[in-house]
Structures are given as C-alpha cells and as structure tokens.
Write a structure and sequence with these properties.
With 282 residues, the protein is of the alpha/beta class. The protein has 9 helices and 8 strands.
Length: 282
C-alpha cells in the first residue's frame, strides 16, 4: 500500500449511501430519452446483480438533439463528478468542462456517472482480491455493458464507432477504467485513468494488461501526481506508460502526464480534467 494514499481511500469508501427507495429493474430508454439537456439527472437506484443497487447520474450537453449522434463518457464514482454536495471532497464540475468543449467547437459527450457503493467501493472497483475479499468489478462491468450501455444506446443516437464510448475514473475508478477497456474492448474504445490505484494487489493490473491483446480501437489518458504517496505512485504509472509505448501506443493513442504539483485528491483531478477531455474530444 502506498503511504499517504491508503487514508484517502479509507475516507472515500467510508461514505455510505443513504437509505434508498426500492431498486428499479433497469434504466428505461424512454425515460432516458425524455431527460432535459443541460441538467444533471440522478436516476435509479437500479438493481445490479450481485451488488447493492446503484444510482446513475446522466448529463446531456445543452446542444443535444435527437438527430445528432453523440459520444458517450462512462465514469465511475458518479457522486464526485458534478456538484460538491454528494462528494466528500468537492465535485469535478464535469458538466461545466463538457460545456467548455462545446463552446470551443469540440465534441461534447453525454456523460453517465455510475455511483460507487459506499463502504463496498474498494472491492467493487477492483478485479483483484483486496482487503481479504474477492474483487467484484466484473459484476459491475457485466451490468454496465449488459444493461446500462444498451439502455443508453436505445435512448440516444450514440456514435456508432468504438471510439465513441470512453470509460474513465480516478484512483480505484482509474484502475477500474483501464481494466474495463481491456476486458471489454467491444464496448469501450478508450480509458481515462487519473491516478489509477495500480498498487492494488501488488501491481497485478500491469501483469493483467500485459497478458491481454491490444484492443482494436484504443486511446488512453494516464496521469498521476508527483506528490502522491510521497512520490511512490509515479513509478507504477510510468511503468504502465512504458508498457503501452512498447506495445505500439504513440502520441495519438496515449497521453501520459505526471503532474508536478498533483496530489491524490479531487482537487487535482478536477484541475487535470480539461486536458484529459481535450485528448479524447478534438
């Protein structure tokens, strides 16, 4: 475990969700299609087999129309993506960053943020055993790929190419995004991984990815803060970047960034978010 990071993760997964109403079976495409652009919509909770029910936060750019195909950005830790209230350390204001893309005449994606599971967060975002418990990320991905993505595709004219759907997150969410992209290359054409928790299970993700073929369509944003874990996070992220370069990832497919003043915090991820979005949405 990296010193200085464990405590942050403990705070994150200590935020348990409030009592929820009965879970819905699945997102309703008709209800999704009726959402108003320019607003963050909190939907659900939805039943996720093997896991606790989950809310999904959806943002449609203000200029969304029923005719224009849209890219889709699927993010983990939905509570942290938008406003400050649901996040223990302040939101990313992702909706504002998306609108800034639109004003710059760049592609502005639809965003679907999947809430984390509170005290179960660490295990749900890991494909590997953690804290003496089996990883359960595959259960969450089965639901995301098998239920959530088809509902979104039925509700909106999503971009038909694999490059149109990106999966992302930070810390455990960054780890989950990288795994999701390589585990489900038929669903995700890239990964946005901020400060991925590569130390989980002794760095098992690096070996896992090395054993998998390159996805047919693949673009990866990877970063970390130089001040994370007293400097011990950077070598792991750099090792992953080196692995990807060795597999043929050039500048158009990989953006690796070490933030000299970055910490393992929502503040740093919010600050780095616009550059990450510009890499994918040009």
């Amino acid at each position: 475990m990296i010193p200085g990071v464990h405590d942050i993760e403990t705070v994150e997964d200590a935020v348990a969700p409030a009592l929820e109403p009965p879970a819905l079976a699945a997102p309703d495409p008709a209800a999704l299609a009726s959402l108003r652009p320019g607003e963050v919509h909190v939907l659900g909770p939805y039943a996720v087999p093997g896991l606790a029910p989950r809310r999904v936060r959806v943002y449609l750019p203000r200029d969304t129309t029923p005719e224009e195909p849209r890219h889709l950005l699927v993010m983990f830790d939905g509570q942290n993506l938008f406003d400050d209230a649901p996040s223990y350390a302040g939101g990313w204001r992702l909706h504002a960053a998306v609108e800034k893309l639109a004003r710059a005449r760049r592609t502005a994606p639809i965003v679907a943020g999947i809430d984390h599971g509170g005290t179960a967060r660490i295990g749900e975002l890991s494909p590997f055993p953690v804290r003496g418990e089996p990883g359960r990320l595959d259960l969450l991905l089965d639901w995301t790929v098998g239920t959530l993505l088809p509902a979104l595709a039925a509700a909106y004219p999503l971009h038909p190419s694999l490059a149109g759907t990106i999966v992302g997150g930070s810390s455990m969410g960054g780890l989950a995004a990288l795994y999701a992209h390589f585990r489900h290359p038929e669903a995700f054409g890239g990964a946005l991984a901020m400060s991925p928790a590569l130390w989980v299970a002794g760095g098992a993700l690096l070996d896992d990815l090395a054993a998998r073929p390159n996805p047919p369509v693949s673009r990866i944003y990877l970063d970390c803060g130089a001040r994370e874990g007293r400097g011990t996070a950077r070598p792991l992220a750099a090792a992953l970047a080196d692995q990807l370069v060795g597999r043929g990832y050039g500048p158009n497919r990989l953006l690796w960034r070490c933030d000299s003043r970055g910490t393992h915090s929502e503040t740093s991820w919010r600050r780095r978010l616009p550059q990450a979005l510009r890499f994918f949405y040009r």
